[in-house]
Amino acid sequence: MNQTLMDHKASDQNEDFLFTYHKESGYIGFVWAMISVTVIEAAGVSFLLLKWSPLLHWIHLSLSILVIVFLLADLRAVKKNPITLKNNILSLKIGVRRTVTIPIKQIKEIRKGNLNYENDRKNKEVLDLSLLGLADPSFELVLEEPTENKDLFGKTCFKQRIFFSVDNQQSFYNAIIKKQQA
């Protein structure tokens, strides 16, 4: 019996937690609306550009197709890559954007995301991983020491605080607290 309890505790520590972040944000509807607008705009503007300059027509059409492909790839990545909490490592991968991995011991504090968001979102030490940036994020992670992060152009920067959203907020909070206490 004692061995069974020990095995259960060991498997509890290695338990994987997966958290979605796109279902309650309206991101799916936003992406489909943007794709629809892009298709309509591409057709109309391409038709006008074709009469004026065939070269500009093809450039515009190519860029519009690239935007649509990016939006579809990002939507698929958002659906397929949940936030994971595995082996005491929190991995935040938001769409096709950057990935941030944080050891649980590195988390100093976890707060509601709407407390300091409006004032601090442009701060250099803050990483905003919210999907749309229109709604307040669910959480703010304050780290013990800054984590290394690469921006979109490959430049290394260090971030002390991270804002992001999670669909099931209470489960996420409980999982973080449980892992920190283990």
UniProtKB/TrEMBL annotation:
Q: Does the keyword Membrane apply?
A: yes
Q: Which UniProt keywords apply?
A: Membrane, Transmembrane, Transmembrane helix
Entry's transmembrane regions: 27-49, 55-73
Q: What is this protein called?
A: Photosystem I assembly protein Ycf4
